[in-house]
Write a structure and sequence with these properties.
2 copies of one chain form a homodimer. By secondary structure, the first copy, chain A, is α/β, with parallel strands linked by helices. Helix content of chain A is 46%, strand content 16%. Chain A has an 8-stranded parallel barrel, surrounded by 7 helices. The first copy, chain A, has a two-stranded antiparallel ribbon with strand order 5-6. The interface between A and B is large, with 55 and 55 residues.
Chain lengths: 354, 354
């Protein structure tokens, strides 16, 4: 089992200034590096409080690379449908170089209509654009004189620079949420799997992960499939203090997320079946049920150890990336939670086997 | 007068590995920060040895931000024709936040046909795309609910996040090379001016700068127009050692640059008149004439002080950004040159007035 840090800014100018946010998460990243965590992961979003402070996880991770010495850096995720593959492949390889080969690249499909609108990228067809871009990025990392002709981009005889430091290329992770065909495709392709089981019961997510592992095995990939889950975490002094501190932050996070998905109430796309009611589902999820469902882990250190062991057994993941910046949390609260995790939780989890 | 560091990787896998390049220039950036230099500037290019190791100056500067405490960070330049304004405005504001308000944004038009080809951006019309993108970025930094409708991008009611830390927005610099109308436009718009007088005699560049300052004054901008020049610099132990070390590095740099512009031999665009013979002009420039023309400064500390004073008088710039990474230079040679500059040149230049 490995344990990393997962970041997703949910701040707006009225709740936390961007320089404060980045100062805080860079400090968390340094502590995670020194404390033996495996990864720092950062999202890509635009325009709204939900993730909008970080339009470029690669640029953020470049700062983390300079501020740390050993922790791995994960995009979680970049949104390939909003990037040209030559830019994405080159910039990722550059951050791989800046970090001395510490980059993991997570890709996700993107699902917020307002982002597609701003960039004039159609929702319909985005799955094909997603896979075509990832295919092109992988070729640009591993081949020279690459020619590609798709409905979305076309180039001939391109050799991207810099070449990745990690060979054949940085580890690739793909995020999946609910579609069994997505989980199967990720396994077939031999990619690692990144799940965020906020809206999916853990048992159901476990079934999806099994679909992924089976597809991975059937495709005959030599390497072991890696599955990592990202979940909100707050470690308090006591269970009572933890709930008192974390519940309003979780509520705030859910509200920001729900607002970001409200646009689905008036948008429909064949590529995104089932997204219409997403914001209602998120609003319906209160902090208590978020905790008791197992998607958010909140408690004193001993409680967190028990809860993580339970989740590990149900989910069958290889590692966790703990989201610790939710609710535009004041820096000192997040630092205290992380320090409790590093001092009192992580040592007890090191012996846990999935 | 201010003095900063200017970086442009001219490495390929056969001459210097990307992790070595970035380790070296991050060390140079730290030394420049500690030594009282004003800026670290980094270019954006793709695909070839000429700049291709840095497709994202913002991502590189984000690492510099984390590795330094006071030096300013300048893109020099980003190429707006290859970016969506929402991404460019948001990512720049993010690096402004990560750096605590230390970002300067330099924009350039881009001029390498192979980059336009790869991104399927037409050379013809690129001037209009350039100005439209900069206009949109400035509006996204300073306004909310921005609606823009151009032939290149269109969006409605967009409020970009994060908001820039520096108000109203990070200082803007525009690069110009040879067209008088470009210098006049930059002055009219009230932007700062960035010049790289490698192929333009200093006297001619001085005339261009005068055109810029006059247009700036005529437009009635309240702030003082700032002009910065980027030139190659090597400070040696002696003049002889300096030439012996720097000349092959300058030759290598010119060869890499010439190769990048060879595509102009078979391309023509009304938006880029006079570019056809560019690679021949660069190849014709030998290291000796590069030095004696004044575009490259090479010598012992005392020689460099004299040469910088002469150039300052001719050019009338407010500051210099010294390019010290040319020729895929080994790190220890660049560090030694920078240390001589900081110890023996900069103190003597502090009293120089333009």
């Amino acid at each position: 089992m490995f344990h990393g840090l997962s970041l997703l800014p949910d701040c707006a100018p009225g709740t936390k200034a961007p320089d404060d946010y980045f100062r805080d998460v860079l400090l968390l990243s340094r502590l995670a590096d020194q404390g033996g965590m495996s990864h720092v992961k950062m999202t890509e979003h635009y325009l709204g409080a939900y993730g909008g402070y970080c339009p470029s996880p690669l640029a953020f991770l470049s700062a983390v690379a300079a501020a740390t010495t050993r922790i791995r850096l994960m995009t979680g995720c970049v949104l390939p449908v909003f990037h040209h593959p030559v830019q994405l492949a080159s910039e990722a390889a550059m951050v791989d170089a800046i970090s001395g080969g510490r980059l993991d690249v997570g890709f996700a499909r993107a699902y917020l209509p307002q982002e597609f609108d701003a960039f004039q990228v159609p929702l319909d067809g985005s799955r094909e654009r997603f896979t075509a871009t990832i295919d092109a990025v992988r070729r640009l990392w591993t081949e020279e004189n690459v020619s590609v002709d798709t409905p979305f981009f076309r180039f001939e005889g391109v050799t991207a620079l810099p070449r990745p430091v990690q060979r054949p290329h940085p580890p690739v992770w793909i995020a999946a949420v609910r579609s069994r065909s997505s989980f199967a495709w990720i396994g077939e392709q031999g990619y690692n799997l990144l799940v965020t089981p906020a809206l999916t019961p853990l048992g159901e997510m476990s079934d999806h992960i099994a679909v992924y592992r089976e597809a991975h095995a059937d495709a005959g990939h030599a390497h072991r499939p890696q599955v990592v889950a990202s979940l909100p975490l707050y470690v308090g002094d006591s269970d009572e203090e933890a709930r008192r501190t974390a519940d309003p932050l979780l509520r705030s996070y859910l509200d920001v997320w729900a607002a970001a998905t409200d646009s689905w109430l008036s948008v429909a796309s064949d590529d995104y079946r089932g997204y219409t009611g997403m914001s209602r589902a998120i609003r319906a999820l209160d902090a208590t049920s978020f905790r008791t469902m197992g998607s958010a882990v909140v408690g004193a250190p001993a409680t967190v150890v028990d809860r993580v062991q339970e989740i590990t057994e149900v989910l069958g993941a290889d590692g966790f990336l703990w989201q610790m910046d939710f609710g535009a949390v004041p820096g000192q609260i997040a630092v205290a939670s992380l320090e409790r995790f590093l001092d009192k939780v992580l040592p007890s989890l090191s012996s846990v086997r999935s």
